[in-house]
Known about the structure:
The complex is a heterodimer. Chain A contains 13 helices and 13 strands. Chain A is an alpha+beta fold.
Amino acid sequence: MLTLSLIFVFPIVMAVAYWLLELGSQSGMGNEWVGVLGVVYGLNILLAYLTIKSLRRMTKSEKELGERAAKDEALLSSIGEGIVVTDESGLIDKINPPAEKMVGWKNEEVVGKKWFEVAPLVDDKGVPIPAEKRATQKVLATGQPISNSTYNYIRRDGTIFPVGTTAAPVIIGGKTVGVIAVFRDITKEKEVDRAKTEFVSLASHQLRTPLSAIRWYAEMLMNGDVGAITDEQKEYVRAMYQSNERMIELVNALLNISRIESGRIRIDPEPTDLGELVKQVLFDLTPKIKTKNQNLVVSVHQDLPRINIDPRMVRQVYMNLLTNALKYTPEGGDIHVIISRKGEEIITQVADSGCGIPQSQQDRVFEKFFRADNAQKMEADGTGLGLYLANSIVSSSKGKMWFESREGKGTTFWFSLPVAGVEAKKGEVTIDA
Amino acid sequence: MVVEDEELLLRAIVKKLELSGKQVISCTSGKQAVDYLESMAEKPDIVWLDFYLRDMTGLDFMNALKHKEGWADIPVIVVSNSASPDKVSKMMSLGAKKYILKAEARLDDLVEMVNEIADTKEEESKQ
């Protein structure tokens, strides 16, 4: 900016100096004096120019600032969510109109007050939530953004509504100087969620009744409970029975997926010996293992700590991985299960010498309903949900799942679980019911 | 006694239990079951109960059993389509012996289990 000014102003200064020089020589003044005078004049003009320029710039930035403020104001009031801005001690700087409407207080009535006193928070039973457990206070304490949708605000008139809050720190120069919390009334979402819960529960009940009837009647026919049937008839009934079993499995898998996806699943961690858990699963799979005469080796590293996970959920992961290994490994093939500790994680490895996953389809393995072409050809029975479900469970248990596979050679799956375990989570449903 | 509002399922259960040599009282509603219990001189050895009945839930039925003298010690097994942890724990705390998911069980196994519990109960009452 200064260079630019100099480029424009310098010729003027020179022109004035030249003019004064001419004037001086006409009036008979000493040349050197005229020169000094010329420079002084020139500097004066330059300073005046710069002063005017910077004054103009200031008024311009003030105008811009005003515009910015007006835009921010419009943004704050046009947004549907309630917004509360507090300083570093949790005192309210501002609440926007939707926030005013939701809690029933006017901005000017609450500025300078503590937000947790203006809008008290209670849980579903009406028990007050202490300030230090609230999103805004937590952000002030930790400097980390936070989301919460488990509590309810009390309005000015004493009524309550469920609230979803996201709070983020305002950081200047690495220091938290305030919090912006955005919140909304989630009454509708809760209703939809409840309706979905009811629907899933109803659907499971409704689907399972006819499935049970088919199962039990087919079973009685096969047992000869209502008279002997021929071998061919028995074979047909068995086909019906097996298809029905598949349908039951499918319903269970779908229910499990909807439970996990809806986030309604309850996580009940308890100290679990993973080696024991695998042994139980293998015990349940004994009939399947025997029919194919496969070599199954389980090795569990010594001194593996018990970890706090939901055994029902992790059991499902072992069940799905092992069922796949058994299903896609030919008779007499090898299956190895290794459980070991690596740093802060416990890694389970399930390796088979089965048909493998074609290279071109490997990136789709964890997709819902996906089954590789060779798997489909080899075994008609399968939902394409097992690995999706296993992967979802592992992710929700703070672990990771990955694999290596070569078509025709075999597949190895790994999954990790944190030694620190997972946190308990409330919910109405579990993985198997 | 079998309390199950799905006629088809009820028929299969009754048939299977009779084949195993048991006498069965079948009820298609909770009220019918309670009425039976009130009029019967001898209480059943065991109750097979569906959780969702047309007129009441398993919880109502268990509460009815609990509050009548001489009914509380009738063993109940719940065979239901829905086994959410809440339901299971409530029913167990009300005194149900077992809670089984209907579609997951073979009828053979269920009948065998019922007979076992009923037989132990019979022996106990003889002693």
